[in-house]
UniProtKB/TrEMBL annotation:
UniProt-annotated binding residues for Mn(2+): D146, E148, E217
Domain (1-deoxy-D-xylulose 5-phosphate reductoisomerase N-terminal) ranges: 4-128
HAMAP family: DXP_reductoisom (MF_00183)
Domain 1-deoxy-D-xylulose 5-phosphate reductoisomerase C-terminal: 142-225
EC assignment: 1.1.1.267
Family: Belongs to the DXR family.
Domain DXP reductoisomerase C-terminal per the UniProt entry, residue ranges: 257-374
Pfam families associated with the record: DXP_redisom_C, DXP_reductoisom, DXPR_C
Protein name: 1-deoxy-D-xylulose 5-phosphate reductoisomerase
Pathway(s): Isoprenoid biosynthesis; isopentenyl diphosphate biosynthesis via DXP pathway; isopentenyl diphosphate from 1-deoxy-D-xylulose 5-phosphate: step 1/6
Keyword Isomerase found: yes
An annotated Gene Ontology molecular function: NADPH binding
Residues that hold NADPH according to the record: T10, G11, S12, I13, N38, N120, E122, G201
Length: 383
């Protein structure tokens, strides 16, 4: 029985994780979790799982819920997330909060010696060097939940990293893959939220439309698999059937295929190295799918990927700036304060103005994350 803490139970990954946990009560026990604005949904989960500890948005909410659920301990804020990530009895912590807020709790979990099932990619984008060094020092596993990285991880089982030639990360292209740059000037929030293949949280759906998400995934792959950026390639694959591939030095390429169902990589991260039956699987019949398509990626059409490679290669504090600027810009786009293309402009401008710190400490990263947010917010409020 694996004891799990789930950061971000009320999100899209959170709800798929709940499905996996509830379908396997003999394998998993949900000991702790967090929610933020979705208090009613969070309360339903407290009734369902009777957790030992729950982290919420504020002290006031914690006090109120403690009266309603006296069996559960309530904590709040980032320190609360760190507490539920570091409970001594845990086996694994699934990080599914949105954004770089996940960084400190992930480090707290690693410090406590817990394995991580990592959905929160912003953590590795922002501070991959710190997270991976800490994981190595503590001898814990970081198991990818992101479908591309889960695919690569599966392709690498039984292989030697020294015999990998390169990774091929597949990209669906997001909601606007067939639109020209000119047409992108007119797109709305509603258009952007309409992803062709995956149902996900709002922020990552926008990141998929700008392709920042794919850029983040390149950086995430660099840290998870310890490979140079020259060995990480992106290929456009509309069907989202091949979740990613690994090419080896002998020319052989391994791919992992499956339906667009996040429960599969979530469950694999939680059961690894075993597999378990997945209930109510989506139909997956390759003869009905018929054909799979792969196209080269146009870096002019998708400049955010180019920016992400640049941020990754230069490294230091630059990826943290890219991420923070993107978080603020995406929130502003979702609030209809800026246009779709202004997300790119904000990220590019923040990166161009930044004086890179080559080996940033955790404190440097947190400070740069905050100052970038303040800067981009001020640009947006001046509009
Ligand atoms: P959602 O927006 O659906 O959920 C985000 C979760 O984080 C919610 O539980 C939300 O709480 C919580 N949250 C938001 N802001 C804060 C905050 N400031 N402090 C604490 N908790 C907060 O996101 P997704 O589930 O789509 O994505 C989660 C992470 O997983 C992201 O990093 C994303 O990139 C990654 N990911 C997601 C995939 C997907 O298929 N959705 C695929 C691969 C990676 P509440 O709702 O209560 O406000
Ligand atoms: Mg992904």
């Amino acid at each position: 029985m694996k004891k799990i803490s789930l950061l971000g139970i009320t999100g899209s990954i959170g709800s798929s994780t709940v499905d996996v946990i509830s379908a396997n009560p003999d394998l998993f026990q949900l000991v702790a979790f967090s929610f933020y604005s979705n208090i009613e949904k969070g309360k339903d989960y407290i009734r369902q799982f009777s957790p030992k500890m729950v982290s919420v948005k504020s002290e006031a909410v914690a006090v109120e819920l403690a009266q309603e659920f006296p069996q559960t301990t309530f904590v709040s804020g980032v320190s609360g997330l760190c507490e539920i990530a570091a409970l001594p009895e845990l086996d694994i912590v699934l990080t599914a909060v949105m954004g770089s807020i996940g960084l400190r709790p992930t480090l707290a979990a690693i410090e406590a010696g817990h394995d991580i099932a990592l959905a929160n990619k912003e953590t590795l984008v922002t501070a991959g060097h710190i997270v991976m060094a800490k994981a190595k020092e503590k001898g814990i596993k970081i198991l990818p939940v992101d479908s591309e990285h889960a695919a690569i991880f599966q392709c690498l089982q039984g292989e030697k990293m020294s015999q990998v030639d390169h990774l091929l990360i597949t990209a669906s292209g997001g909601s606007f893959r067939d639109k020209t740059r000119e047409a992108l000037k007119q797109v709305t929030v509603e258009d952007a939220l309409n992803h062709p293949n995956w149902s996900m949280g709002a922020k990552i759906t926008i990141d998929s439309a700008t392709m920042m998400n794919k850029g983040f995934e390149v950086i995430e792959a660099h840290w998870l698999f310890d490979l140079d950026y020259d060995k990480i390639k992106v290929v456009l694959h509309r069907e989202s059937i091949v979740h990613s591939m690994v090419a080896f030095i002998d020319g052989s390429v391994k791919a992992q295929l499956g339906p667009s169902d996040m429960r599969e990589p979530i469950q694999y991260a939680l059961t690894y190295p075993d597999r378990a039956y997945l209930k109510e699987q989506q139909p997956f019949d390759l003869t009905k799918i018929g054909a799979l398509h792969f196209e080269p990626l146009d870096f002019q059409r998708f400049p955010m990927i180019r920016l992400a490679y640049e941020a990754g290669r230069i490294g230091g504090s630059l990826p943290a700036v890219m991420n923070a600027a993107n978080e603020v810009a995406v929130a502003a786009f979702l609030a209809k304060k800026i246009t779709f293309l202004q997300i790119e402009t904000a990220v590019e401008k923040a990166m161009a103005q930044h004086q890179v710190v080559p080996h940033p400490s955790l404190e440097d990263i947190l400070e740069i994350d905050q100052s970038t947010r303040t800067l981009v917010e001020s640009w947006i409020s001046q509009k």
